[in-house]
Amino acid sequence: MHTLQQALGNISGGRVLDVATGNGNFVGMLMENLRGYSEIIGVDTNARALDAARTNFKQDNIRFQLMDATHLDFPDASFDTVGIAYSLHHLDNLPQAFSEMRRVLKPGGHLIIAEMYRDNQTETQLSHVYLHHWWAAIDTALGNTHHETYTRQQILDVVSSLNWGAWTLYDYADLENDPFDAQTLKRLDTALDQYSERAKNIPNATELRARGDEIRARIHRIGFHSATILIGIGQL
């Protein structure tokens, strides 16, 4: 069975909250793989990303709101399912964020964590790790919260610290795509160009832009696959 279907397919999502939703990528995965849902609300502090999400999802029961993960403006026990994906390394105060997620989750509800990790990756997946860490270095230099990705064990430590009892864990990797897919390489070249442009006025711009050129060359030489994701499913 496909890992995402295996992880999410037995969950009747009900009213779903996607924390730090970005442009809504995980919302799409939830829509495709949950057994069902009545409504999905995505929240993020990045207004531009939310605009992209609203463009991507036009359904009446999919909504996006500008909101901080550490101060969720929802009543207690107001969601059946709460998810956070690819965003643990974007948050400075994980305990507060998880406290808020637990507060708005109904008793018996599901918490879904999905996070890429940096160790035990193939060479093509390491292209993603190096690229992501380069993005993090530029964002950090610009004053934005963006840490390097965790190791798998560090994510497990985060999950264990929540003291929610038993968790079901899955490792998800998609290595079936062509690592030299032309559209993917074009998209990555565009992202590299955009970040390189953003870096041009920061103190170590020359070094960072040279690092970006090295990553671009690596991607075109070795190829690119997304890094493996650890998915954790907990239930109150």
Describe the protein's architecture and organization.
The protein is an alpha/beta fold and 236 residues long. Helix content is 42%, strand content 20%. It has helices at residues 3-8, 25-33, 47-56, 94-104, 123-141, 152-161, 182-198, 205-222; strands at residues 15-19, 39-44, 62-66, 79-85, 105-116, 167-172, 229-235. Strands 3-2-1-4-5-7-6 form a seven-stranded mixed β-sheet, sandwiched between helices.
The H-and-E topology, N to C, reads as HEHEHEEHEHHEHHE
Helix content: 40-55%
- Using DSSP, what is the number of strands? 7
Spatial shape:
globular
The radius of gyration computed from the alpha-carbon positions, rounded to a whole number of angstroms, is 18 Å
Q: Numbering strands along the chain, what is their spatial order in the largest sheet? A: 3-2-1-4-5-7-6
Instruction: Quote the distance from N terminus to C terminus.
Output: 26 Å
The low-confidence runs, each spanning 5 or more residues with pLDDT under 50, are none
Note the main sheet.
7 strands, mixed
- Nearest-integer average pLDDT: 94
Structural class: alpha/beta
Beta-strand percentage range: 15-25%
Q: In DSSP terms, counting alpha (H) and pi (I) runs of 4 or more, how many helices? A: 8
